[in-house]
Design brief:
It is built from eight helices and no strands. By secondary structure, it is mostly helical.
Length: about 120
Amino acid sequence: MRIIYAMALEISIKLNEQMVLSLEDIATLFEGKFNERMLVNLERHILTLNNFRVNLATPLDFVLNFAYLEQATLAQGSYQLTPDSIANETLYLLHYAMSSYTISRKKNSSIAVAAICHVL
């Protein structure tokens, strides 16, 4: 079970960090019980089980999800907003938030909510 945790950590680091945990390092951590070929196969198996859906949701993904969830409510207001119009109006805010280091380190869902609230 520890090898699965190690490979999940390796995939996460590969996708989210600047440095990489090499397969040689993982093989060394397990004192040579697993060779690199086995680790490559395990990584491929984990990714296949997840249908390669390993990307993080962006603030825009959250904006679209929130806006479409509240589509009926937005249509009832005096402004008759559509989810697409909400998303379009938040784009410049999302771009600014993601280009600012301190803001971009916040949760993507929080950035989306703040952008929607500003637009509304």
